[in-house]
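Lecture notes, part 5. Sequence design as translation. It can be helpful to think of inverse folding as translation between two languages: the language of shapes and the language of residues. The source text, in structure tokens, appears below.
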């Protein structure tokens, strides 16, 4: 069989189910990865025969790309429905390192305006822009020494100025896809329209109090369905050089103890309050992420 399409229409648009329709998409993910999460056990297929087109919700597409010798069958039903939360979970859980976030954003169709809070020399900014097809990336950083920032990355004013100049030069090739906001995080957030951003990535002051403040300041700026994310998902004590002491057994006796590294506690509390499912990359310095409910 050639060019078999699996169709399913109907279902209430306000419900938790998605319908399957044939949509062409360049953002393809092997369907077998989705199947591993038990989303469509009624379907049997060659492992690389199908692709998931995940441009928009509530419409999703499964298109069978079959050669003449391959078989494709529906063993239990002709129509296929998928739970929205399960599908999103399957997409997010595939992110295994933060440098792949640009690809993830493309797959989710989040290609409008995004914001990176804490940019320094623009390393990660460049990585995002190189892969992400989005319209514009806002870079928010004070680029100056801050007295209340107890972190090894809190350089002198002179060093911060050099980092600022380096970041501007590094990202110049991306032209008007980059917008630099040299300001403190909470002050910058005030200037951004609510529900205008497709994604936010927080990698600034890592103390418990600062991360809580960033979450509260920036979350309203994210549109429903947008990606909220950030770096260094852990709680840790700091050594003499203000570097994190990474110990899996560390549990803070009090949030007041997390003056340098308290990202995990702040993010966990925020996600629990919102009732959203949190995902974390399997890295030494993990990235956390979740989708804002629609």
């Amino acid at each position: 069989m050639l060019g078999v399409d699996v169709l399913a229409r109907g279902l209430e648009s306000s419900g938790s189910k998605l319908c399957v329709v044939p949509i062409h998409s360049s953002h393809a993910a092997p369907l077998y990865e989705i199947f591993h999460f038990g989303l469509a056990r009624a379907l049997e297929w060659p492992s690389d025969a199908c692709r998931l087109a995940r441009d928009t919700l509530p419409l999703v597409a499964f298109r069978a790309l079959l050669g003449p010798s391959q078989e494709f069958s529906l063993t239990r039903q002709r129509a296929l429905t998928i739970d929205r939360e399960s599908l999103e979970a399957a997409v997010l859980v595939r992110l295994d390192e933060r440098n792949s976030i640009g690809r993830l954003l493309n797959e989710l169709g989040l290609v409008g305006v995004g914001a990176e809070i804490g940019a320094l020399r623009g390393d990660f900014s460049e990585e995002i822009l190189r892969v992400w097809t989005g319209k514009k990336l806002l870079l928010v950083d004070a680029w100056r020494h801050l007295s209340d920032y107890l972190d090894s990355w809190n350089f002198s004013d002179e060093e911060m100025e050099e980092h600022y100049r380096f970041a501007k030069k590094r990202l110049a090739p991306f032209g008007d896809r980059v917008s630099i906001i040299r300001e403190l995080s909470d002050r910058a957030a005030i200037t951004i329209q609510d529900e205008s951003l497709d994604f936010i990535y927080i990698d600034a002051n890592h103390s418990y109090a600062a991360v809580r403040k960033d979450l509260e300041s920036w979350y309203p700026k994210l549109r429903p369905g947008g990606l909220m994310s950030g770096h260094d998902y852990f709680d840790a004590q700091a050594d003499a050089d203000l570097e994190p002491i990474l110990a899996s057994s560390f549990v803070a006796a009090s949030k007041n103890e997390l003056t340098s590294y308290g990202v995990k506690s702040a993010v966990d509390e925020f996600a629990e309050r919102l009732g959203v499912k949190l995902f974390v990359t399997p890295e030494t310095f993990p990235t956390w992420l979740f989708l804002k409910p629609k």
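The translated text above is only one of many valid answers, since several sequences can fold into similar shapes. The radius of gyration is 21 Å.
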